């Protein structure tokens, strides 16, 4: 029932909707949600899918996907240090969107079909395990971010250690 492709594609659609919503409203909370969703999604994929994909299906393809995740993480890190109302923030969000859309396209049109073709028997099991792991990771990341979150529309700067602030 919980096929990994269904699960990950639902995440992709949700992130695309959030990017659209951010473009329409410029709402910093929506941007925060984009970054959280992407972080959870990337961890789930890296922990549960990319290793298997690398070992059994396409090593180079997995390395490329990891590189694209890193690109997104670097952009998210930059966003975390920016004033959410600035032009730089909006243009970095636009770069993140472009990067993520490209990555989503490759996953859905190359990686997922190849994975399904090579390892059809693992697909359903993987999906079931992902549901549980996703919940754990999201709770963990929400907890981490809540600690360092700063009001987005004031000049107050986070004073926490690097990586914890929004
Ligand atoms: Fe990915
Ligand atoms: Fe993905």
Global morphology: globular
Rg from C-alpha positions? 17 Å
Number of domains as seen in the coordinates: 1
| Alpha-beta content class | mainly alpha
How much β-strand is present in the residues?
under 5%
Sheet having the most strands = none
Q: Give the averaged pLDDT, no decimals.
A: 88
Order of helices and strands: HHHHH
Number of strand segments: 0
* Small-molecule components bound: fe (ii) ion
Uncertain ranges: 148-166
User: Given the structure, what is the number of helices?
Assistant: 5
**Helix content, binned percent:** over 70%
Distance between the termini: 36 Å
Spell out the blueprint of helices and strands.
Elements: H1 4-25, H2 28-56, H3 59-80, H4 87-118, H5 122-148
Helix pairs in contact: 1-2, 1-4, 1-5, 2-3, 2-5, 3-4
Bound molecules: fe (ii) ion (FE2) (2 copies).
Overview of this protein structure:
Helix 2 runs antiparallel to helix 5 and helix 3 runs antiparallel to helix 4 (87-118). The protein has one domain (4-148). It starts with a helix and ends in an 18-residue tail after the last helix. Mean pLDDT is 88; it is low at 148-166. The longest helix is centred in the middle third of the chain and has 32 residues, at 87-118. The chain has helices spanning 4-25, 28-56, 59-80, 87-118, 122-148. It has five helices and no strands. The site of one fe (ii) ion has 6 residues, from helix 1, helix 2 and helix 4. Residues 42, 45, 65, 69, 103, 107 line the site of one fe (ii) ion.
Could you give a short description of this structure?
This protein is mainly α and 166 residues long.
């Amino acid at each position: 029932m919980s096929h990994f492709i269904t699960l990950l594609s639902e995440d992709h659609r949700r992130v695309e909707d959030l990017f659209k919503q951010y473009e329409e409203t410029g709402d910093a909370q929506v941007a925060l949600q984009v970054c959280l969703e992407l972080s959870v999604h990337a961890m789930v994929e890296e922990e549960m899918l990319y290793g298997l994909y690398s070992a059994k299906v396409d090593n180079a393809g997995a390395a490329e996907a990891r590189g694209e995740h890193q690109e997104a993480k670097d952009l998210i890190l930059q966003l975390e240090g920016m004033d959410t109302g600035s032009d730089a923030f909006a243009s970095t969000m636009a770069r993140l969107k472009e990067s993520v859309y490209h990555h989503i396209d490759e996953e859905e049109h190359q990686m997922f079909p190849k994975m399904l073709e090579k390892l059809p028997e693992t697909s359903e099991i993987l999906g079931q395990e992902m549901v549980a792991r996703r919940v754990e990771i999201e709770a963990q990341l929400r907890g981490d971010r809540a600690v360092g979150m700063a009001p987005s529309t004031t000049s107050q700067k986070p004073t926490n250690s690097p990586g914890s602030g929004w």
